[in-house]
Amino acid sequence: MSTALNLNVLSIGGSRNIGYFSSLKLLELGATVTFLLRTPSTFDTNTAIQKYVTSGTARLIKGDALVREDVERAWKEAAGKENKPIDVLLFTVGGTPKFSLLNGFTISPANLVTQSLLNTLSTIPPQPFQPRIITISSTGLTRTSHASLPLPLKPLYGYLLRVPHEDKVGAERVVAHCAGWKWDAKEDGEPGADIMGTEEWRGREGLPKEGELKRVLVIRPALLTDGDCLADKLEAKPGKCGKKELKKAYRVSEEELGGWTVSRKDVAHFVVDAIVHRWDEFENKCVSIAY
Q: PANTHER family in the record, alphabetically (predicted)?
């Protein structure tokens, strides 16, 4: 990816993992990225980020996505004094899971992703165009998706990851409502007030009405790993990297892939590729990604 960018990006959940790797790639391509961080000192010793902080293309804003006022301020800071429209919202919020024998992996609060997304979408500022919005979900959430999983992974998704996945379903429910996508309660589940905060969540102040959100991409990765970015390795081979070769790095489809794993760095590669080169192909879609 060598395309120079002039994009204004708001990254929420970008302190680590997919959000971090995606944001760093965008910075390297010339974008301006505003990070909303509960602990901005996270990047104090990160030389890769600090050089962009020094140049002014990376902005670190202290705040919590669970606090509506903090998210509202992040949008304003991203726009800056020039009130420049935000081109991309990269929403990759995810808690640090803790394990218990009774509940498997849990996050606190249990509706972290859903409530953070509700705050984010309900504070989008008026601007000439809607930002492109990318959110990270997970495979295995629905009955069809779970059925397509490799057999050894089904207990992991059905038991160990049940609690965080209920939160992911809540976040997808919010996107489906705002984007006007069909939602099958039998297939996808209908999250309760424990996840949505209230049964009246659709009426939250500022939340886009049904069908108003026009530029969104939901990504459902397979089981995430800390492996290398295979796509970057292919691109590093002069004269040998084309579309066929990149397809070998990972698969992306609107259909269930039934894959085992995918690295966070390869998901980040796809995020940036979708933003820079393939937005028309993936806008208003929910896709799975796996090896």
A: FLAVIN REDUCTASE-RELATED, UPF0659 PROTEIN YMR090W
Identity of residue 287: V
- From first CA to last CA, the distance across the chain in angstroms is 20
> What domains does the chain contain, in order, with CATH numbers?
8-290 (3.40.50.720)
Q: Enumerate residues 6+ apart whose C-beta is below 8 A from 228.
A: 263, 265
**Local structure of 274: helix, strand or coil:** helix
Residues 5-21 have pLDDT tens digits of 799 999 999 999 999 99
User: Among positive and negative, which fits the CA dihedral 50, 56, 57, 60?
Assistant: positive
Is 276:208 a contact under the CB 8 Å cutoff? Answer: no
The long-range contacts involving 75-81, CB below 8 angstroms and separated by at least 24 positions, are 75/10, 75/123, 75/124, 75/125, 76/125, 77/34, 78/8, 78/9, 78/10, 78/34, 79/8, 79/125, 79/127
The distance of Cα 133 from the centroid of its chain, to the nearest Å, equals 8
How does 18-35 read in b/e, with b if 16+ C-beta sit within 10 Å? Answer: bbbbbbbbbbebebbbbb
Gyration radius (Cα) of the chain, Å? 18
Scanning the structure block, which residue is given the tokens 């993936």?
282
- Residue 259 — φ and ψ, nearest 5°? -80, 165
Within 8 A by CB and 6+ apart from 232, the residues are: 265, 269
Could you give the 3-state DSSP secondary structure of residue 229?
Answer: coil
pLDDT at residue 242 is higher than 60: no
Tell if the pTM clears 0.85, that is, is over it.
Answer: yes
* Helix/strand/coil for 139: coil
Question: HSE on the CB side for 239, CA within 13 Å?
Answer: 0
Tens digit of each residue's pLDDT (9 = 90 or more) over 30-53 = 999 999 999 999 999 999 999 999
Q: Are 269 and 281 in contact (CB under 8 A)?
A: no
